[in-house]
Amino acid sequence: MTKIAVVEGDGIGREVVPIARAVIEAVRPDLEFFEVEAGYGLWKRTGNACGEETMADLRSADAVLFGAVTTPPDPGYRSVLLQIRRELDLYANVRPIRGEGVDIVIVRENTEGLYSGIEWMESDRACTVRVVSRRGSERIARYACALAKSRRHLTVGNKANVLKSDCLFVEVCTAEAARAGVPCRTCYIDALALDLLMHPDRYDVVVTTNIFGDILSDAAAYLVGGLGMLPSANIGERHALFEPVHGSAPDIAGRNIANPVAAIRSGAMLLSHLGDAAAAAAVEEAVRRVLGAGIQTRDLGGVAGTREFGAAVLREVGRGKA
Predict the structure, then answer these.
(1) 85 φ, ψ to 5°?
(2) Which SUPFAM superfamilies match (predicted)?
(3) How confident is the model over 18-35, as a mean pLDDT?
(4) Span 1-90+236-322: which CATH code?
């Protein structure tokens, strides 16, 4: 039986992930779910936000549905997501930006760059090493090219006019695109950020390095209603984790006002990864129908609560199965 690890995490993760899980269960009741604890809450109780037992559970799963975790400004706290991405080698972060007149996929290298984890403190400065390797660049370029080949074209976001490490990234990505026969252009990341917001129709698949992809995809959320709308996938050779792009938002946690769309759509991406395109499409269609009916959470200008929106999606999924 296919096993799905569920990590609710912290804050609004505990509100939106149960809804996403319920929607997945509605279309795939055959899947086996098991809960795994990780995050700030666990760290406060035990001093470890993501220990070996947690990692062993995640490795045992066929896929992971992940909520959001709080990362406090504490030097003793190790980022849970960075740890999981590195230890499971989830090298490709995939963030689709889809809405009216917008269909972009941002593919972000997920294990190195400024999130390499190579950091240290000195008496009068803090240092972080930006790592861009040929191997890391090649595999993310190949992933992005395979995706672009089934779509239209590829844009390589970079800052090669300033950063030597990006010269390598651009060299590798353009070579892989030429090898794959994918139309490709390069664009400096600052100009790209502005142009993508002004002319989203010009873009299809965008590949870039870790922190640039993190920032660019968050900014692109503006095009479709905000971070509450964006799902994401973290893909490796043997493991895959699916999570909403937004954070744990402790300021609104427990108030039934968080938008569960990103979590639900992350569930749809999980289903697609498992090879069930029909179930994934059914979930996406249910979300579209609910939004189209004017049922929206407060961040979208509506009045629906988190639970109420989730219930509406579950009803639509039920109609689709009838």
Answers:
(1) -60, -40
(2) Isocitrate/Isopropylmalate dehydrogenase-like
(3) 97
(4) 3.40.718.10
Domain boundaries 96-225, corresponding CATH code: 3.40.718.10
Residues 6+ apart with CB under 8 A from 110: 85, 90, 91, 92, 93, 140, 210, 234
Average pLDDT rounded to a whole number, residues 84-89: 94
Percent of the chain exceeding pLDDT 70 equals 99
Establish whether domains 1-90+236-322 and 96-225 are of one fold. yes
Q: What residue segments make up the domains of the chain, in order of their start?
A: 1-90+236-322, 96-225
Strands (E), the chain: 3-9, 32-35, 63-68, 92-99, 102-109, 119-121, 126-128, 154-158, 184-188, 205-208, 231-235, 240-244
Angstrom distance (rounded) from CA 128 to CA 107: 23
How far apart are the C-alpha atoms of 8 and 200, rounded to whole Å? 33
Interacting residues of 40 by C-beta distance below 8 A, sequence separation 6+ = 10, 49, 69, 70, 71, 72, 77, 248
Q: How confident is the model at residue 145 (pLDDT cuts 50, 70, 90)?
A: very high
